[in-house]
Write a structure and sequence with these properties.
about 150 residues; alpha+beta; about 20% strand; two-stranded antiparallel sheet; two-stranded antiparallel ribbon; 6 strands; 6 helices
Length: about 150
Amino acid sequence: MYMKKIITLLVLLVSTVAFAQQYNTKKGAVASGYDVVSYFSNEAKKGKKEFSTTYDGAKFRFSSQENLEMFKENPTQYIPQYGGYCAYAIGKTGEKVAINPKTFEIRDNKLYLFYNSWGTNTLDLWLKEGAEDLQKQADINWPKINR
């Protein structure tokens, strides 16, 4: 009987971990510590440690108490697509690539983040190569690599 309970708990633990969303938490928080709510006002604002929360096992930081409260009211509205990894890379190659938190796009009321360094701005490539097709491919690729 004791062994049966242990096995049940292990199965529950493994299934929870298997289906958990993975987040890009470089610099200790999603979006490199930038305020995911601020993007929806077309601004990339750095979050502050005093305005932070944990959601779905990941830390999020905000530039103000107001933005923190907005996130808490509806977190799924503000979470970046593909766990905050580069949307272009997810769509183009199916790889998790770090982002530059100042390079973003709001498309269909969803946040997409992009790599932008060493002369490569993947937001520009995303738009130039066809954002709609890359987004569709990223939607296919993400469940395969979200482990």
